[in-house]
Amino acid sequence: MAERERDIQTCCISDTSCQFGLQSVWGTGNQLFLFPGKNPLLSNERRPATGKNEQIREVQWDIDLHHPVLRKMVNDSHNIFVNLQRQATQLTGAAFHTQILNSSRHYRATQKAYLKDLDDMIGSTRDEEQRQQYMEHLKLLNISELIWSLCEILFIESPVGGLVVPKLLDWLKLHFITAGRLFDDLMKEEQPESKTTYWDTIFRLVLQGQIEKACRLLSLHSARQTDDFQTLINLLKRMPQLSNVYKGSSVAEFDMKWRHWRDECQRNYEEQKFSINPNLETVVRILCGEDAVFSEVKDCCDPWYHMLISKALYQDPTVKACDLHYYIQGCQDAYRSTTRLGELDSILLSALESDVYQVIKDSRTVFSNGWFVAHLTDLLHHCGQLDSHRLQFGSDLQREFLLLEYAGSLMSHHSLWIVGVSYLDHCAEFGRKYLELYLDHIPLDSEKKANKVLKICEDRNMTEQAKSICKVMGMRCIRNKRLGAALTWFLRSKDVGFATVLAEKYLLEYSESGEFTNLDLIDYLGPSMLLSNRLTFLGKYREFHKLYSEGEYHAAGDLLLALLQARLAPKQFWITLLIDALPLLEKTELIFSSQQTRELMKCLEELTTEYKLGKKRDGLGFTEARKDQLDVLKLALSRNLPKAILQEGTVNLL
Fold first, then answer.
1. pLDDT tens-digit series, residues 350-379
2. 3-state secondary structure string, 75-98?
3. What is the pTM assigned to this prediction?
4. CA 626 to CA 580: how far, in whole Å?
5. Complete DSSP assignment for 174-195
């Protein structure tokens, strides 16, 4: 088949500011942002000024899946898809093939459910434009279900003995319901034969293999007792049924019975037993499989693929799927003068010619949102239909490309993006790379969404993306003065630099106000405090305050001294630590030993010396009030030292 180019859709932007050109940047999924301008050709060239307020325009395409009604179908089909991928790793052989067929039927059930919803909406909506949109969706979905069910018969299902005609007849009855509707109408009439549709209905029923219904209508005719009517009714009733093959009969046995039956039909026709009634003669000619009669009743088996199945039924009912293409040309020629073959005809033609890849290619043109081709190709891949074609780039990449394209159409939606992630997970070659790029561009509108994206990154060991998300959210919290939330984000990403900055902000806040905010967070830092020295100091300093408030003065004093000796605290915070020792020195009970007192005096001396030498003067916090407090501290240390020595000496003597 000749390849057909896809029509190019054009979008015009009426804006004089675009006269110098357009630039663009990609958004997420099927999204593009356009703005006026051009890339400078020379390094010193400037972009011409338009003198107007320039606008950024958002362009999206193939977004019909974003419609609220379609989202239900997207979610339902996603569950079927994920389940099939899981079964692919657990099942093999016939068991897995059964699962593939069940998945195909579930996909079709999802389409039918959505068709019903669309029908209801078309009937209830008052907006004419909305109604037209729904009707367009309905038309496309009917076409997709028609194609899918045919592909299921030809490529996925494995009929007993390779017989496809019984399944194709079911396909006809399901999608071409005119015969059934006319039959129901005639059965309500007292004299069906008086209606102009009587014989057309019989022809339609016979062409679809609905022999029982055809016999019922013939039995209602006023001339039903005549020999010609009785002979035809008996021939119809004795027609060998392909359904017997499914009940245990062999294909060879059926073929032998069918040939005997057709010979009998041919003999009765040649003996001109039906010549009195041309309509009866037309029916028996159909039973004989005469080529010319199908052209005569082509209005009853329109379109061409209906005629193809009817011909196969009466000319070679045991035909294999791979041989159906022999009937195509003659059937198409019968309609060529009155009907122009369209896109649907091209797809069904490719299917009947067993050209799987052309089916996929043409379907991708008709169904632009990617849902149809992505899921159908996945099924065909799993049942091995793509392996036989041996494309240069491999059948796996054909499937993966279509899944990537479909996932891309989901990633630009505010809620369906999470469904798109599952499809990318099952693209072994490029799925992870695509997912990383998409996650980098997903707008983090809320902390809830950010946590979802972060969980996806953590589950897939995407360290860089996880850090980026935490950094973005952490910086947003800092701008909003939510230090506790910011620290939580930086702890999750183990960002040492920003965790240190936030710890210093907490310490500065304490220095200025004398109290901590977000105590719950600081109290339960746990092992996270080891991320940085400042964070460790913050956690331990908060622990010192808890010990002091609980009356554990000795433990509090030991911890305070350990913080000074370990040099974990910034130098400008030493004054605060030393002043925190003052209440402990003023206790009646001795808290600091002589050695500990000397260490405190040493730290005080180091801090004072730096101040006097002029080092970091502005950053050490030496206010007049602080100086007075340090003088009091020096006096308290001087008093505590002999007290400690005396008590220690007394203890030693004892």
1. 999 989 999 999 998 888 778 999 999 999
2. HHHHHHHHHHHHHHCCCCHHHHHH
3. 0.78
4. 12
5. HH--HHHHHHHHHHTSS-GGGS
